[in-house]
Amino acid sequence: MQKLFTHQKNIPNQIAFDEGNDNITYQEFVVQAQSMSNILQQHANHTSRIAILMPRGIQAVLSIYATLFLGATYVPLDIQNPDIRLQFIVRDVQPQCVIGVGIRPTWLNQEIPWLDMQFISCTENTDMSMNHIQADPENIAAILYTSGSTGKPKGVAISYRAIQAFIDWSSTVFQINKFDHIASLAPFHFDLSLFDLFTSLSNGASTYFIPQRLTMSPKNMVDWFEEQSITTWYTVPSILSFMTLRGALNSASLPTFKRILFAGEVFPLPNLIKLSQALPHVELYNLFGPTETNVCAYWNVQKDTLDKLDSIPIGIAACSAELHMGDDGELLVKGPCVMSGYWMQGQVQKNDSPWYYTGDRVSQDAAQKYFYHGRMDRMIKSSGYRIEPAEIEYHINQYDGVEASVVIGEDDAISGQRLVAIVTGKDINIQALRKEVKQCVAAYMQPYRFIKLDCLPYLSNGKLDLQALKHQISEHS
């Protein structure tokens, strides 16, 4: 945090964040975030959780830093989530207040203070001191909610120590400086956003928010990158694949780009080869790790070796992590990047072991590089999101007439995997069921198709026969 105040002094007029027709300098950012922090002290302190319900952008970043100036915990909420999921998260995290824009949401408990960002940002604050609380490194800086294997969202508690470990590592490896223009697309409830939020400001860089409308028009997005002189982008392979296939890239494209970082899912090798050929001047990095570890491994893509590979390495340890491959091939991680635990029942439930068991199956080559071979459990990776099918199945099973359900991932060249819901039961209205599920789960967790079967196939040991199920699904294509 101290580097931010140094940048405010040394490069006060440098753009910190740019959002279309609006931008904010380092000087303005620190003053406004500090002013907001002083106002937040009326509701919260360093032990508090502060929920933030607004789209990615300057106002949301100000809210996050105002929270961190208090030494408190920010909890980013996905504005696209259905009310029922937001209600669960707020009940679980027990925030001291919720910051948003406009009127209080009808689903929010009346006992929780609602702070309108428009009111906070225009409130006159006579106390303009630049002091901020130096948080204990082990205090929780953020709680990011992910899909839960129990059928409910789970909060990953990330310490100030873990965020600092990522800042230190990413700043060194990628040599970010005040001349960098960073493109930001990751929503703030997604762990990829930690780079855009913290590595950028720690190094005096300028972050530009990609307009959401451009995500469906890769050619226009490429034009936007060039207009903004973007040098760095951290995103998911599905978006990069879309841009590679539809963005009309060539060796003259994106001349200011220095590096592209990607994470969240497996990058299809043919698409990565096409990207590396289209942008020979750009360094590519594969970053790996679940939300619970943020980034624990990385590989600087060696473009001249891609055509000799069967799969893309996840590489070597990152963020001072220690990696270990269990006897069954599971990747284990320990070190400063690992989460403090899961947020449950008003507190962090810490892991008894210093090792975090990722559930990812890996191998190592002779050079000690790690390779990823999929999940050991049922987790699905789709468009960069790690999705527990159990949470979707829980809501499907509440629907009248459903006897059983299973959600699986179907391979897709763009998103990695697409969600398919298979249900059994009598008199099920699939259209009504689809509508019901949309009211209960996040947009990225909604199955793209539903299939009704007479019964689910099982093995002799009583477990679901996934191979037989996938064969049956293919017959419905």
Number of strands: 26
Task: Report the structural category.
Answer: alpha/beta
Radius of gyration: 23 Å
Give me the side-by-side strand order of the main sheet.
Answer: 2-1-10-9-11-12-13-14-15-21-20-17-16
Q: Layout of helices and strands, plus pairs?
A:
Layout: H1 2-10, E1 15-19, E2 22-25, H2 26-40, E3 49-53, H3 58-69, E4 73-76, H4 83-93, E5 97-100, E6 114-116, H5 117-122, E7 140-146, E8 154-159, H6 160-174, E9 181-184, H7 193-202, E10 206-209, H8 218-227, E11 232-235, H9 237-246, E12 259-262, H10 269-278, E13 283-288, E14 297-300, E15 313-317, E16 322-325, E17 330-334, E18 341-344, E19 347-349, E20 356-364, E21 370-375, E22 380-382, E23 385-387, H11 389-396, E24 402-412, E25 416-425, H12 430-438, E26 449-453, H13 466-475
Parallel strand pairs: 1-10, 3-4, 3-5, 5-6, 9-10, 9-11, 11-12, 12-13, 25-26
Antiparallel strand pairs: 1-2, 7-8, 8-18, 13-14, 14-15, 15-21, 16-17, 17-20, 18-19, 20-21, 22-23, 24-25
